[in-house]
Design brief:
Elements (H helix, E strand, L loop, with lengths): L13 H10 L2 E6 L5 H9 L9 E6 L2 H14 L8 E5 L2 E3 L6 E5 H10 L6 E6 L7 H16 L5 E6 L4 H7 L5 E4 L6 E6 L7 H14 L4 E5 L3 H12 L7 E6 L5 H8 L5 E6 L12 E6 L2 E8 L4 E8 L2 H9 L7 E8 H4 L16 H10 L15 H14 L10 H7 L5 H12 L3 H12 L17 H13 L11 H17 L13 H11 L4 E4 L6 E4 L4 E4 L10 E8 L6 E9 L1 H8 L4 E9 L4 E10 L2 E7 L4 H15 L8 H16 L10 H6 L1 H4 L10 H4 L5 H5 L4 H10 L3 E3 L5 E5 L7 E5 L11 E2 L4 E2 L1 E5 L5 E5 L2 H16 L26
Parallel strand pairs: 1-7, 1-8, 2-5, 2-6, 3-5, 6-7, 9-16, 10-12, 10-13, 11-12, 13-16, 19-21, 27-30
Antiparallel strand pairs: 3-4, 14-15, 17-18, 17-20, 18-19, 20-21, 22-23, 23-24, 25-26, 26-27, 28-29, 30-31
């Protein structure tokens, strides 16, 4: 059957595309915006002989684009959607046995691959808008390539993109042919601001819209980062533009279908479409002649240091900017106003970074384990996932019970992976089944997976044990028709929550599950704890709002949360915070009993014998722990080996001066250091403080028996331990080469002291050295001692290492000064010939 469609720029390329796919099992198609690739290519391929009657699956990054593309193709065929062209998105599937082309979102493909690794009945998988580089698209391509190389060489892959750097994709697919098509686009006049805008994004964007309305024609498409900005712009515009002349249409993924169609279809008046980046590609919004680009988008970003993921508002790339501008030239010449200076354009990244570089990879790790390839690097990636982030995902999955310690998927993990939801919330749903609380678990999963109905609230209105209770009550009131002021005008945000909750009830076969209103708050906490075992926290001692989590991180209660007095809690939503702690936005209090009930078999007693810095002593205890979180502590008796290791840790922290050093022990250490300096060629031990501390367990440990505290260390003289570092030969050489006393001419043995640096010091009365010309030496004659010559009152009068020079030059001055002061002591004019003495002059 020959199909006749309105001409599009992609049409001349279709014969080459058909032939390329007939000859190769992978092709890359780069087509500019407006070429028609999304809706024309699947229809042009669905009757090819190489398909052999099999289906085409086409992946779209977004639900709205998938449903819209399928409906448009079905309309071209003159059929209702679900006949030859159908779609499958979250919460909805429109297909039939006659369906040849099925448009699906990326996450659905991953689950289908897991359930049917052969992809039976599928002959071609098309990856549309691959330039967006979503995590699911990267994973799906890696798995499809794995199937193609190992099980099904006949499976064909077609990667389509408007702005992607296509060469790396071609290389990844084994040198796949690269085809290029120009798009259909009228000239677009790009305008910039003269300077960077000031103030809130929604405020200056509204101002730009109002200015542009007056000097332009056609509908306006305004790109904003998120739903909050869209709503603020909508509120401001509704009070300033004439309702009868202008229609204001928001456009984002969670919007009800009828409201989405209102934005996409022509209107009977001028239209302002306020959209997220959902409108960048695949969707043609009829009537648009003007694009206003805020220059921002929302992207998930994962912080490996804290293990938290949050949506961040970031600058778009140049590729995003070109895509957005092209929306103004689809039907006629248009205008694009970029809300930034032209100089900023050159600073933008060429392409948005792949989500795999910044996202939470927990779900990816679970999918790989289920695929039987726990080592991600065995698959083909454009950007391999970072090993550190993969490890964090593996650690969390072990906590959730989805993987064993070896990284293999468990039966529980198989069940969790089969649910199209983040593994945390899959664990929550499983806990709901286990505890007979399926309805409550489904409502919690819906509230946590959809937009928060209380998003944007700066401060919780009152203290509560659980922030989720207020949200559950809003949902319950909305279901029962009691929506009033208590709902805070959040009915619109509750609609997708209800849809998600209903979907999960159907998935779990619990459509008739009871109300979400729990019998007690503890059950909510228990279910949430099953989903966030790494975020179970205990209040830090001495603080009012800071918590330490089982996963090792820290958190601080935000004013948005009403939970602020609980000793234990589970942090449900968090964002990056100050001083390394995450900011806890929503939480639920816990009791130790709940933690015991939910995690009892996984709680461990951890024996700890360590040095307590505050008490300055060894302490021994056992801690009942969940991960890094200490629940209870009990004292124990430490073994000698454990105690010794902790004591040595304390000694290293306190330093060697803590020991009870006697003069003799200090002198031994200094004598050894002196010989090590003097005889570097000999094997004298290093007695520096750093070296002694580094080796303390070998030389000092045998002398620490019974010591437990700083006070005990202060009583230990290290002298025998220091001598124990020397063998018998070294001890003998120590006495020979570094003696502690020297005999002087008076016949007296004087003490020789060794400082930490420099020569040994001999302190002796001047009169005892009369007649001695040569300075005494030690170390086998290598080193002259430093002589401190003392007065009769034993005060230093001279310091010399050259005794002969002193007698010749220094002694006459000393004699002149001291002879009268000490007349009882001999002061001969010629010290060379005088008799050395320790005593006073003899009486005549």
């Amino acid at each position: 059957m020959t199909l006749s469609f309105p001409p599009l720029p992609i049409d001349p390329l279709l014969p080459d595309l058909r032939q390329a796919l007939a000859d190769h099992n992978a092709v890359v198609l780069q087509a500019e915006p407006g070429a028609g690739k999304t809706t024309r290519v699947p229809l042009a391929l669905m009757a090819q002989s190489w398909l052999a009657g099999q289906r085409i699956w086409m992946l779209e990054p977004r639900r709205l684009a998938a449903a819209h593309a399928a409906r448009y193709m079905a309309r071209l065929l003159g059929e209702p959607v679900g006949e030859r062209v159908g779609y499958a998105i979250r919460f909805e599937r429109r297909v039939s046995p006659r369906t040849r082309v099925e448009v699906i979102t990326e996450g659905l493909l991953t689950r289908r691959l897991q359930n049917d690794p052969l992809l039976e009945g599928v002959g071609l998988v098309i990856f549309d808008e691959f330039h967006e580089r979503n995590l699911h698209s990267d994973l799906a391509l890696a798995l499809c390539r794995d199937i193609q190389q190992g099980l099904r060489e006949d499976l064909r892959l077609l990667v389509m993109s408007a702005t992607l750097d296509a060469e790396p994709v071609s290389d990844l697919l084994g040198g796949a042919p690269l085809l290029t098509s120009r798009g259909r686009s009228f000239p677009v006049a790009v305008r910039y601001l003269e300077r960077e805008p000031q103030g809130r994004l929604a405020d200056y964007t509204t101002g730009a819209i109002l200015r542009t309305l007056a000097d332009s024609e056609g509908d306006l498409l305004v790109f904003l980062p998120g739903v909050g900005d869209i709503r603020r712009c909508q509120e401001q515009l509704q009070g300033t533009v004439a309702e009868g002349e202008t229609l204001i249409c928001p456009l984002y993924g969670d919007l009800p279908f009828d409201d989405q169609q209102k934005a996409l279809r022509p209107a009977d008046r001028r239209k302002i479409v306020l959209a997220t980046n959902i409108a960048e590609t695949s969707l043609t919004i009829e009537g648009v002649r003007v694009v206003i680009d805020s220059g921002f988008m929302r992207r998930p970003r994962f912080d490996p240091a804290s293990g938290l993921e949050r949506l961040e508002t970031v600058r778009i790339s140049r590729a995003n900017a070109e895509q957005r501008a092209g929306r103004a030239g689809r039907l006629a010449p248009g205008i694009c106003l970029r809300l930034w200076p032209e100089a900023r354009q050159g600073e933008l990244l060429s392409f948005s970074p792949a989500e795999i570089r910044s996202a939470d990879l927990t779900g990816l790790v679970l999918e790989l384990a289920r695929w039987g390839t726990p080592d991600a690097h065995q698959l083909a990636w454009l950007d391999p996932p970072a090993e550190g982030v993969l490890k964090q995902g593996r650690d969390l999955l072990v906590l959730l019970g989805a993987l064993d310690e070896a990284g293999r998927i468990t039966p529980a993990g198989e069940t969790m992976a089969a649910l199209p939801i983040h593994p945390r919330l899959a664990a929550l749903l499983r806990a709901g089944e286990r505890l007979g609380q399926v309805g409550l678990a489904c409502d919690l999963a819906a509230l946590l997976s959809e937009r928060d109905p209380l998003a944007g609230r700066e401060q919780a209105p009152h203290r509560t044990r659980c922030d989720l209770l207020e949200r559950l009550e809003l949902l319950d009131d909305w279901r029962s028709g009691r929506t009033n002021s208590a709902a805070g005008g959040k009915a619109e945000s509750l609609r997708p929550v209800e849809r998600a909750a209903r979907y999960w009830r159907e998935q779990l076969g619990a459509e008739n599950a009871g109300s979400s209103r729990p019998a007690d708050e503890d059950m909510v906490g228990r279910l949430l704890a099953a989903a966030y075992p790494d975020r179970i926290g205990r209040k830090r001692a001495g603080t009012l709002d800071r918590y330490h989590f089982s996963g090792g991180q820290g958190g601080r209660i935000s004013p948005r949360s009403g939970v602020g007095e609980a000793d234990f809690l589970v942090a449900v939503t968090m964002s990056g915070g100050d001083r390394g702690d995450g900011s806890i936005q929503t939480a639920c209090s816990l009791t130790p009993d709940i933690i015991e009930q939910e995690f009892g078999p996984r709680l461990v007693w951890d024996r700890r014998v360590e040095w307590d810095r505050e008490q300055e002593r060894v302490v021994a205890r056992e801690e009942r722990k969940l991960g890094a979180l200490i629940l209870t502590v009990r004292p124990v008796i430490a073994g000698s080996g454990e105690s010794l290791a902790a004591l040595l840790t304390g000694l290293r922290l306190l330093g060697l001066e803590t020991l009870g050093w006697s003069d003799a022990s200090r002198q031994v250490a200094n004598r050894i250091k002196f010989l090590a300096r003097t005889f570097p060629e000999q094997d004298w031990p290093d007695c520096s403080e750093e070296a002694i501390l580094a080796d303390v367990e070998n030389w000092l440990a045998p002398f620490l028996a019974g010591a437990r505290s700083r006070a005990d260390l202060e009583l230990i003289d290290p002298l025998p331990a220091l001598l124990g570092r020397l063998d018998w030969r070294q001890q003998r050489r120590l006495e020979e080469l570094a003696p502690t006393r020297l005999k002087v001419p008076s016949g007296h043995f004087c003490n020789l002291s060794y400082p930490g640096q420099g020569a040994p010091v001999l302190a002796v009365k001047l009169q005892e050295l009369f007649g001695l010309a040569e300075t005494p030496r030690v170390a086998g004659g290598r080193v002259p001692v430093l002589i401190h010559l003392l007065s009769p009152a034993r005060r230093p009068v001279a310091v010399t290492a050259d005794l002969q020079s002193f007698w010749q030059q220094g002694y006459p001055e000393v004699r002149k000064e001291l002879a009268g002061r000490y007349p009882k002591h001999p002061w001969p004019q010629d010290p060379w010939k005088a008799l050395p003495t320790r005593f006073v002059k003899r009486r005549n």
